[in-house]
Amino acid sequence: MSQYQDLATKARGYGAPFVSKAIAVADRLGMADADWLLAAIAIETGNFAAVGPPWNSRNAKDNGAGIIGFTGVDGQGWERMTPTEQLDLVERYYNRFKDEFGIAKFRSPVESYEIVRGPWGLLMKPDAQVGDGKTRQWVIDTATRIFTSLGLSWTVPTFGMEGAWNVRIGTWRGIFVFSQNGDVWYASAPERSGGAVPEVGMSDRKYGHWSCDGKTLTWRFGPRDDVRRFQVSLPVPEEKWEGFIRQQGQGFFKMWRGAVEPD
Question: Using one digit for the tens of pLDDT, what is the confidence trace for 174-184?
């Protein structure tokens, strides 16, 4: 039994039935390890110390409570539910944002926790404020430290498209840069000086989030009301990738490695 499962099993108001149900929910949500869900809940409950009903203890900053700090959903019944019963709402909440970001499977417990802490942060820069005066990078670093201290370890998968790509969309030229953790950003093509490509400043980058279901790579950029969804099919080509911008009618794009666009 893992440290997270042991903590939850022994906690008042949680117990073995809660752990068993959480394991099943995590599996349906596409988490490689059930502890990824338990870890997110542990942060929000002080390692399963918060319990209800009634959920009398509220976060003074956002009025949140419950096993994932429910906010903005008062009156929907979670206030009168046990932790085990709330797992149904947790699954519904996660599925909403899985659909929003096109996530088939979570790649790490940190990505899973960001959905709880502030899902729209997935479309933000590392130094962007995501609430309570904290930056997105602070959330990532803090979650990583806490999770590893309680025995979690993970390997972030790769798909072969990580790194920088030159891009053409109509007459626009720019770059897409994919990080292994799911971040992606774009910028207009930087001016070259003496053959060298200058670093693109953080202020010139527009961040987003990418996901992969094993067959298709999809991504979107912030802000949250940007309707564009970029899509390419795997495997990664040797020269040029051609993809579509959804919704229907948004157009298409081409991307490639190297300075010169292949024919």
Answer: 999 999 999 99
How far is the C-alpha of 90 from the C-alpha of 256, rounded, in Å? 40
111 phi, psi to nearest 5 deg: -60, -40
- Phi–psi pair at 70, nearest 5 degrees: -50, 130
- What are the CB-based long-range contacts (under 8 Å, 24+) for 16-25? 17/84, 18/83, 18/84, 18/87, 21/84, 21/87, 22/87, 25/87, 25/90, 25/91
- Backbone phi and psi for residue 148, each to the nearest 5 degrees, phi listed first: -70, -30
CATH 2.40.128 domain residues, the chain: 163-256
Report pLDDT digits (tens) over 126-168: 999 988 889 999 999 999 999 999 999 999 999 999 999 999 9
Q: What fold does the segment set 163-256 form as a domain?
A: Lipocalin (2.40.128)
CA gyration radius, the chain: 21
Helix axes 35-45, 15-28, angle to 10 degrees: 120
Using N-to-C axis directions, what is the helix angle for 35-45 and 136-149, rounded to 10°? 110
Q: Alpha helices of 82-191 — where are they, by DSSP H?
A: 83-101, 109-117, 136-149
Q: How far apart are CA 49 and CA 63, in angstroms?
A: 17
CATH number of 3-149: 1.10.530
Other C-beta atoms lying within 10 Å of the C-beta of residue 215: 9
Is pTM beyond 0.70? Reply is: yes
